[in-house]
Structures are given as C-alpha cells and as structure tokens.
Specification:
Blueprint: H1 3-23, E1 45-46, E2 51-56, H2 64-79, E3 84-89, H3 97-106, E4 111-113, H4 138-145, H5 148-155, E5 162-172, E6 174-177, E7 192-195, H6 199-207, E8 211-214, H7 220-226, E9 231-234, H8 236-241, E10 250-252, E11 258-266, H9 267-272, H10 275-309, E12 313-315, H11 320-326, H12 328-337, H13 339-347
Parallel strand pairs: 2-3, 2-4, 7-8, 7-9, 10-12
Antiparallel strand pairs: 1-3, 4-11, 5-11, 6-9, 6-10
This protein binds (2R,3R)-2,3,4-trihydroxybutanoic acid.
Length: 350
C-alpha cells in the first residue's frame, strides 16, 4: 500500500470512528465498566504478520492513539514484508498506563502510546513537558519534541527497558466539570478534579485552589458518573471518545497542559531487531507521527461544535490569569527539571 493510500485510509477510518463516537452506536466502553478481559487475549485489531506485536493503550479504540497504532502496524507489516504486525488492546484491557509502561519494561507488552505524565514515575526526563503552558502552540511543541530536546529526552531512557521512537500527541488539555462554568482560576476553587498520577499536574491544580485527585484513566468515567470527583482535564478527542460529555456539563477551553504521547517500544524487542529492522521501525514511527497528529488536529477542529451539540456548555477562558496562577509550579520544579532546559524551550516559542 502506498503512503498516500494509507493516509487516505487512515483519515477515512477516523471519520467513521468519529461518527460512531458521537452518534453513540459504537461499542465503546462508555458505561464506565472496566473493559472485559480479552478472551484468550483476543485483541480488537490484529495484523497478520509472522510476529504479532502486542500494543496496549488506555483509551477507546476510536481514539487516534489506537488508530495511529493501526496505521503504524500496517506500515511495519508492509515494510518488513509481513514479518511484523501489530495487534491493539485498547481501553486499559492490559492495565493502566502505569501498568502498561511496566509491561513494556518487562517485555510482556511490545508497544504503546501513553501520556508523558505517568512516565514521571519511571524517568525524570519527561517532566518538563508536564509544566503548565510550557508550549505556546503545537508548532512550538513539535519544534522542541521533534528536535534535539526530544531526542535527549528519549536518550535518557537508556537502561530503563523502554525505547522512545516518536512523539505522537494527545493534545492540549481542557477542564470539564459537573458543577459550574469555569472562566477564571477562582471558579475551580474547591472542585475535586481528577488529574493524572503526576506531581506537577497535581501541584498546578493546587495552585488554582482545586482539590487534585490522582486516578488511573480507566476508573475515571465511573468516578465522574458517581460524583466521586467533580471534574477532570483532557484533550477534546479523549473527552469525545470516552464520552465524558454524558457525565460532564461544562467544558472550559483552558489548554493548560500540552500532552505529548510518546510511542514507546520495549527494550527487549528493540534489542532483538536487526539494524535494518530498527531503521524500518524508526522511519515508520516518524511517518506515522504525521498521520497520528493529523487525526488529532482533525478532531480538535470539529469537536468543540460537536461537544456543544451533545449539550456541553463551553467557555473560552482568558488564559492569562491561569498562567499566572500556575506559575509558582515552575519555581517548585526548576531544580529537578533544570532551569536551563526550561529557558531553552521557552526561547523556542514564537
Ligand atoms: O493518555 O489519563 C489521562 O487522562 C490520559 O489523557 C489518557 O489516559 C491518555
């Protein structure tokens, strides 16, 4: 299959899944029940290579993490003449993002796309990406992550059993909640907001007076539904594909964190590849990056309107006060992250 055909196919897939997501005729795990354990390890999308790699993610099949992974698997299958393919286990079927990363280290999972936030428990290298408002926009994030800084982040994984291939993305994160419209930081005061298991994220929400509650993603829908937490924060494609609009009335487009989503493979797998195969895995990862980011962009472009149509009340806060309120986090974390690295990234802004 040519690259162009693949691109067209992937886009088509995204459109179909988008329809399924919003019209609600999908089999998504929207009821908040944990996904049933895969029977005999039955994946939801399997390639047909001689060696079938296990890919795991925490999110719904329709999300670009998984659709990007399918595109990547097809490229590998084609470029290795059928030696490698990928099967995808979505929806935290193989565990939470933390458990998936552990699986990558142990070699029980071959490949994943995860948020950088839970990677903080494994390496300090990714912490800088968790700072609020560190990236002004996507081109800024891409300049940093696709260049030397991104490479040096991946280089620091040496010895962890995790190999980073490319920075895919989840996107800019926005706050949803069940209580009230959010405009200024004072509006989240006292709200219980689920965050990822990441100290910088928790500190940032403490600075605006919220009560940050860390929790694995797989438990989130139920927690929102039952009111264990008032709100959460995630990019629009997650809010849509995980159907959070069913249990959250308010969406504030704060864009406070940019969430990269590295494509990671297990060190054990990487070490077993020939040099030629390593090149194929790496180049396909780079090629799939454009497709995956394109899927996120396509969703970002239409989802505000669609989530509004689903009944969400949307606010567009002035980010200035948020940036100011969360700024103390930079000082708290500057020694761990490195003031120089923070400055270097800021200087790559617009
Ligand atoms: O990485 O936990 C989260 O909120 C993440 O955005 C999600 O699992 C995808």
């Amino acid at each position: 299959m040519s690259k162009k055909t693949l691109k067209v196919l992937s886009l088509l897939l995204v459109m179909v899944f988008a329809l399924v997501t919003v019209t609600g005729c999908g089999g998504g795990n929207g009821n908040g029940e944990p996904a049933p354990a895969p029977e005999n390890g039955e994946p939801e999308a399997a390639g047909e290579g001689e060696i079938v790699l296990r890919a795991a993610t925490s999110v719904d099949m329709s999300h670009p993490y998984n659709q990007g992974m399918i595109a990547y698997g097809e490229m590998l299958e084609e470029r290795t003449n059928g030696k490698f393919s990928i099967e995808v286990y979505p929806d935290a079927q193989l565990g939470s993002e933390r458990e998936i990363i552990e699986g990558i280290q142990m070699g029980t999972i071959d490949v994943t796309v995860v948020s950088t936030a839970p990677l903080a428990g494994f390496s300090d290298a990714f912490l800088v990406t968790d700072l609020p408002f560190i990236f002004e926009d996507k081109p800024h994030a891409y300049r940093v992550l696709d260049g030397e800084i991104g490479q040096s982040i991946f280089d620091q994984l040496e010895g962890t059993g995790i190999v980073g291939l490319a920075f895919w993305e989840n996107g800019f994160r926005n706050i949803t909640n069940s209580q009230r419209p959010i405009e200024v930081p004072e509006d989240v005061q006292g709200l219980k907001i689920r965050t990822m298991e990441n100290q910088i994220h928790m500190d940032s929400f403490r600075e605006v007076g919220a009560d940050p509650t860390p929790m694995a993603f797989g438990e989130l829908f139920t927690a929102l539904q039952q009111g264990t937490v008032d709100g959460q924060e995630n990019p629009l494609p997650i809010i849509a594909t995980s159907r959070f609009y069913e249990v959250q009335d308010h969406l504030a487009l704060t864009g406070h964190f940019y969430a990269p989503a590295p494509l990671l493979i297990s060190g054990a797998l990487w070490d077993s590849l020939t040099d030629e195969e390593k090149t194929i895995f790496q180049e396909a990862a780079n090629d799939a990056t454009d497709i995956q980011r394109g899927m996120i962009q396509e969703m970002d472009d239409r989802l505000v309107e669609e989530l509004e149509a689903e009944g969400m009340q949307i606010t567009r806060p002035d980010v200035g006060p948020w940036q100011e309120a969360m700024a103390p986090v930079y000082e708290q974390w500057e020694d761990t992250i490195g003031a120089e690295l923070i400055q270097q990234i800021q200087e790559m802004g617009n």
